[in-house]
Amino acid sequence: MLISMVEQIKALPPLPESFQKINAICSDENGTTQMLAKVIEKDPMLVASLLRLANSPLYGFSREIKSVLQAVSLFGMTTTRALVTGISVKKLLQMDTAPYGVTPEAFVETSNLQGMLMRQWYKKLDMPRQDLLFLCGLLQETGKILIAQQIVRSDEVTPFKAQVTTAHNLSEVERAFVGTTTALVTAAVFEHWGFDETMIQFIRYSDTPNNAPDLETKRFAASLHVAKTAVAINGPMNEQNITLALREVQRFELDEMAFAEAIEQLIEHVSY
């Protein structure tokens, strides 16, 4: 990884106090949705972002969600914690995703789709891992924010964007321009913030699952690789990328039927 990128990661400030409080409540067996909602309500951006997610077609709630408590109750504490983590990370990193040819809103939507794809895919296959995989999918593209900043500083937005637009393998484009990839940057960022080591490993090897140190890491790293292929930032869930993702499912001998069902369910909620 480039020295400048490493220094950029080391200079990142800690996640906000509200995130720490939310984490503590969700980890406490006596924590309640009411306690969680009260902390979230003190942060207007968290409130706006969480309600926007609650009312998006992706989560399929049958009525309009108007309050934080209502949203937290419907999401549940584990999902709320994951969503708040994603919101907090993206807020702290100050997104400028122009080098990838998308708006910050589209970037967030792509992240949410990857998270939901992982959840739907593994909800019957591996219930104990479902929530962690949702969080991995939700956050695995975080490194793109720092890579985009590097591209802007290097004044290479135009040539980078031109290659991203047509690339089937974004990690190759990233490596050519900045000497590293989203997966490696994301893993380094989460190490800096002290995130769960299992999650970090799944993300770190998502470009190179065959290099994973054990079979479980290989399996879930490969699944994350499939998710970001199907829901690629330069063509989320288009026919070509879904076909490419299915090939990767077969190559890594993952559950093809469960994946196809998960894709169908997402398409029912979101149209492009």
TrEMBL record:
It comes from the Bacteria. Residues 12-209 form the HDOD domain. InterPro entries: HDOD (IPR013976), RNase_Y/CdgJ (IPR052340). PROSITE patterns: HDOD. Gene3D superfamilies: Hypothetical protein af1432. This is HDOD domain-containing protein. It comes from Sulfurospirillum tamanense. The lineage of its organism: Bacteria, Pseudomonadati, Campylobacterota, Epsilonproteobacteria, Campylobacterales.
